[in-house]
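The following block was generated as part of the benchmark described in Methods. Ligand: phosphoenolpyruvate.
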Amino acid sequence: MRKKLIAGNWKMNGSLAANATLLDNLRAGGAVGCELAVCVPAVYLSQTQSALTGSSIAWGAQDVSEHESGAYTGEISATMLKDFACGYVIVGHSERRSYHRESDELVAIKAAQVLKSNMTPIVCVGETLSEREQGHTDAVVIRQLQPVLAAVSSRLSEIVVAYEPVWAIGTGKTATPDMAQQVHAVIRAALASVDVHAANTIRILYGGSMKPDNAKELLAMSDIDGGLIGGASLKAADFLAIASAA
Ligand code: PEP
């Protein structure tokens, strides 16, 4: 039985004052029946670590360098993130793929770096609207996943995958539960082609305008093992309501 994971992606939002309130409210939310995590801007990792240590909520980052150390101005390595006790690191978010031109291969190297520092990569895949309209959804997610499968094959069971249709991120448009389930099943089959046991244990999250009012039906699908939540993770009540739905 896969334990559901609800992970927040704060993106480039927050301030010391706003985070303090949000983190306090999340902590006060008490135990929920699933795993909870927040992926915060790197500059707030120290604050998040202080606020959440001793709670059941994990924390993590939104990106990582593909390099281990050295002359890479502005980059943050996996070992640095580990210094702040990150449990999770998002890699390959569609905003990184489109605004920073991150390739499938680069995302795979980043996932391997995260594992090397004994954190869990949340590997994001998902198609654009035009790719969906042309019937290329399955091919796109498999293409995005393939280099990751090759790079982390010996530790495949330790990754989390997030299916995030690009057209649903931050738009208020959500994939229907059936649409999402269909792609999740394709992803699980691709994982199974490498390691059947890992495929059964890996959590595949759905992301894209998940909110308290649509979470329950999405999370009821057999291959949807949680959510990667953007906008709704910035309000403790909404984030906790999604967690309750899980
Ligand atoms: C995301 O950025 O990963 C995301 C799913 O955003 P939103 O929930 O706002 O669509």
